[in-house]
Write a structure and sequence with these properties.
The chain is of the alpha/beta class. The chain has helices at residues 18-27, 47-53, 55-66, 119-123, 125-142, 150-153, 159-179; strands at 2-6, 32-36, 70-74, 98-102, 108-112, 184-187, 194-196, 205-208, 217-222, 225-230. The strands form 2 sheets. Strands 3-2-1-9-10 form a 5-stranded mixed sheet, covered by helices on one side. 33% of the residues are buried.
Length: 234
């Protein structure tokens, strides 16, 4: 049994490396594919626009299901309105929280997007929602995304401050799912591929699947083995 987890493709954003993603989907051979949140970027494009611009990606996903591959989807923070107008209806309705996997050897693995463990996002949730609504209205009226101006209006985190925030999110996810009784957890959200082994008697095995903007990384779960891989890597 081989499960592949990809996260944060952000199809609809200018930075999305969708050509490489399409190549990956064309070559994919697994039993189960989990899209672990922010596969689509509804902050940047409406479902109708996404269906038109990424018709090839949608076709690849449909072909995977026709081949018998189980495709599942978690909703990320950029997909909160997805259920109002699904970009591509799959056989499984997207879920908001987490997906549980039981490996052949009995290990329990959780797959979660992870935005609910981001202190900055949860603290400023309604600001982000207002930005999302304003972004939609701005795009419809003048054809420009509000995110074009984000560097002028928002404080960006850099250097040590950025990595401190990322590490805080990763540790909060590890702590939460260790307390929930899982043996391993796979997440996305931070766009930072990461792997931490299980610490004897305490923490669970942890992997961040990275993204398809800059890293083209994914997590593979085969039997009881979890690994972080990069597409195109020798």
């Amino acid at each position: 049994m081989r499960t592949v987890v990809i996260s944060d493709a952000h199809l609809g954003s200018k930075e999305s490396n969708y050509r490489e993603l399409n190549r990956f989907l064309l070559r994919l051979d697994c039993d189960r594919l989990i899209l672990a949140g922010d596969f689509w970027d509804l902050w940047e494009m409406e479902p109708k626009e996404l269906r038109e611009q990424y018709a090839d990606t949608i076709l690849h996903l449909r072909n995977l299901t026709k081949r018998g591959i189980q495709v599942e989807m978690l909703l990320g923070n950029h997909e909160e309105d997805y259920l109002d107008d699904p970009v591509v209806p799959l056989s499984v309705v997207p879920v908001r929280d987490s997906i549980a996997i039981r490996t052949p050897g009995g290990r329990s693995v959780a797959v979660v997007h992870g935005d609910q463990y981001d202190r900055i996002f949860t603290k400023f949730y309604w600001f982000y929602r207002a930005l999302c609504w304003g972004n939609d209205a701005c795009r419809k009226t003048i054809g420009v995304s509000l995110k074009t101006f984000k560097k002028k209006s928002c404080t960006s985190l850099e250097g040590h401050e950025y990595w401190d925030v990322v590490e805080d999110i990763h540790e909060r996810v590890r702590d939460a799912y260790w307390k929930f009784g899982y043996d391993a957890v796979v997440m996305g959200h931070t766009h930072c591929p990461d792997y931490k082994k299980q610490e004897k008697g305490r923490k669970i095995e942890f992997l961040n699947a990275g993204d398809w903007k800059f890293n083209n990384t994914y997590v593979e779960i085969e039997d009881d083995l979890l690994s972080l891989k990069q597409f195109g890597e020798n």
